[in-house]
Amino acid sequence: MEPSFGWVSLTPKALARARGQLNAESQGVRDEVGFLLLHQRYADRFFPGTSVLHTRLRYALFVPWQFEAERGKHTAVAERARAASEIALAKRLKDGLQAGAIGGSTWPNAPDQSPSSIYWSALDAWGILRRDARGRTPTRRGVHERFAVARPTLDDEGEPLFGYEPPFVTLPPPGEDWTSGGPLSFALLADERAFLAERLSSVLAPAPCAHLSLLSQLARSGAPLSGSLWSRAVLDLAGRDRAALQRARSSAALAAIGRGVYAALVETLRDRVDKRETPHRHRSVLPKLVDEHRARALELGGRGLDLVEGDVGVLPPKLRQLMAETLEWLDRGGGDPMPLLDPYEAAEGRKQERARLRRTPGARMRRAEWQAHDHPVGYPLHYRWASVRRLLDDLRAPAA
Question: Whole-model pTM?
Fold first, then answer.
């Protein structure tokens, strides 16, 4: 058979997704058996609207200002203009030597994810973006469409007639630094800081909770956040989330061990079953992970997993089984991880052809590609704390 050649065409969105996956892999952001679900659910409970991609708080004003700047334009024209302004924003922040500028490293090309896509959920959760009459969050295109057709008639006092409600709540006016077109800073002006403090101080934890989120408690306090998420200062402010925060800490410890177990199992199968020379990197590290995190993880014994589900909702059965069996293994002292192969193989099954623990030719191929030193050693869940601290630090910084 003669070899054949052809072209494969990928859409820009598909290329962006592929680059995002590669970037995530390079940063060690992996979810082999499902622990990321715990991370997301606890983080959403404590810090609604936040993302690991958030860098600086002033983007929560930059984004709506850019949409409002395209008011009255046809939707397609407004979308193109806003996309161009996002690239220009990266250049202005880059010229201002600002750490955390989205797109600063890719300028003059657009980043894989724009500031508006990264911060859209935050604008919704923090009450800056208004939902429609049915309680739905408008899309970015929907906001442009609304601005394109909504030219409300104003009364003598400048207020809109006919009950017109703009997509965003009333924002602080852009300062001179925004309108000048020159280098730009992330430092908040006094009225901007007051506005964002008021928004962040009123964010409820997601349903079925009905209390102020930990994010709001921290925003209200103004206390310095020099420590970890488990510091005394944070625990003292957690209020009704204190017990959930402590269970999140135990879950983070269990995830560190579980990630170590997964990697050790892959090494073991590659060595014993596939007969391939394999480093002992993760098998050597696993006892250290157990020593460091075992006591904290075992706090989830007894009814602990029931209480975790009370915090974040029902867990997938395979993930819960994996957690339960890992706790039993730890209670016996840890040791050889091979008794945990079945629950970890079952939990990894959602990856289908990318799974490594299965007893199939495809999994054997994935193990052959395994590079122990490219896979991060087990580490606890962080619940976006570094990003949240950066946002709160911006809120606490002296006004520009």
Answer: 0.88
